[in-house]
Amino acid sequence: MKGFLNEILRGLRACPKYLPAKYFYDETGDRLFQQIMSSPEYYLTRCEYEIFSLKTPAIADLLQSHLPLFDLVELGAGDCLKSRFLLKELVHRNLSFTFYPVDISANVIEQLTQTLPEAIPGLKLHGLNGEYLAMLEKARQLSDRPKVVLFLGANIGNLEKDQTGIFLAQIRATLKKGDLLCIGFDLKKDPDIILSAYNDKAGLTRAFNLNLLKRINREFEADFDLTAFKHFPVYDPVSGACRSFLISLKQQRVNMKTAGESFCFEPYEPVFMEISQKYSRDEILALALTSGFRPLTTFCDSKHWFGDAIWEVDDK
Ligand code: AVI
Q1: Which residues line ligand 1 (CB under 6 A)?
Q2: pTM for the model
Q3: What is the ipTM of this complex?
Q4: pLDDT (tens digit, 9 = 90+) per residue, 75-111?
Q5: How far is the CA of 217 from the centre of ligand 1 (A)?
Q6: What is the CATH number of the domain that holds 105?
Q7: Domain that holds residue 160
């Protein structure tokens, strides 16, 4: 709670203003994100689902050819919609492994623990509720088998480029030489397709962004007027950054009782909300190399809109 308030205050005091997107995900935010993922414009989930539903045997072959024995760790497991294809395949191949789903939501881990071993008989599951890096470390303490880490859904795209390298280097530091990372990237494509994914006609992404203001109103007794902010995503085809902003439609002052502070907004002043970084194939390769991995291959969907890259931990 204290961390949340401090980060919100830091963002609203900054120039230009920003709010951290990791706080989008309260109960309403989770529900909106589920709806976004099944909206016609948000292609990312469908593309990655296609990769896992069609290419799982090839992915499993690759994992097995590199590591005869391993455990699987999924960072931000959610409902395991895509990884369950791989889990089924590995169980079907009679491989002995433990699946460690990692999620920040205790509810998600509880759900998975109850439902997944039933849906995939023979699956050994040990849920880990907490932060990615700490839980990855925990999985290593629990078993000394080599690790295959899944980080799907283009979640890596929600980090700024300078943070991405740091995060990947931190993941690598918790792994051993030969361990594998399977990481989902949204690829650069027609800018109109990207922009409409973040500006769906039903207004789900708009509501998803505005919901953070609503959350701040509720949790910190603030008085953001949700009708006085406009959702405005932009895509830069050179850098591949898709950025969402909320634009203040008028001069206004927002009060936050919990902090005893108020914030002034100029007409058309932007609040930066979220980055969803898109990558070219060359940028993905370069990222692997600079963060200490050896790129093995990238599995793509039929439209080449999304890629799941498999990297091996290189010499430390
Ligand atoms: C979770 N993450 C990969 C999503 C994305 O595409 O950046 C979050 C999202 N934001 C708006 N729509 C979806």
Answers
A1: 36, 44, 153-155, 157-158, 198, 205, 208, 274, 276
A2: 0.96
A3: 0.99
A4: 999 999 999 999 999 999 999 999 999 998 898 999 9
A5: 23
A6: 3.40.50.150
A7: 1-316
